[in-house]
Amino acid sequence: MNYSDALKSVIAIGNITDGYNGNREVVLFSLIGNRVVTVANCGCFNSGLPDVIDEKEALWILQNHPLAKNIKNIVEFGMLTPF
Q1: What is the pTM of this model?
Q2: CB of 65 within 8 A of CB of 50?
Q3: To 10 degrees, the CA torsion angle through 48, 51, 54, 59?
Q4: Using CA atoms, how far apart are residues 3 and 69, in angstroms rounded to an integer?
Q5: What is the DSSP letter of 60?
């Protein structure tokens, strides 16, 4: 997994609490293989969410899994309007 691969497979955007100072930060979520990864401006990281079968399950987990309770304002990437 690398940053450029993660940027090519973005499935959603949302915001999470920054673990250092408590501010909310906008991040991307990518599906690489069967793993949901968090993509931030400083790199890509394992999201800590369970492995998934497909994009539909990944989007459900981002919105409903107990470990995802810190993720807010999820927007599916396909639903974003290009500028």
Answers
A1: 0.85
A2: yes
A3: -30
A4: 25
A5: H
- Of the candidates 52, 51, 48, 60, the residue with the CA atom closest to the CA atom of residue 19: 48
As a whole number of Å, the CA-based R_g of the chain is: 12
| Block residue for tokens 């500028």 | 83
Q: Assess contact for 14 and 29: CB atoms under 8 A.
A: yes
* Integer CA distances (angstroms), 76 to 10, 30, 63, in order: 9, 11, 10
pLDDT tens digit string along 18-49? 777 778 889 999 999 999 999 988 889 998 89
Instruction: State the residue for tokens 């920054």.
Output: 18
Distance between CA atoms of 51 and 17, rounded to whole angstroms? 22
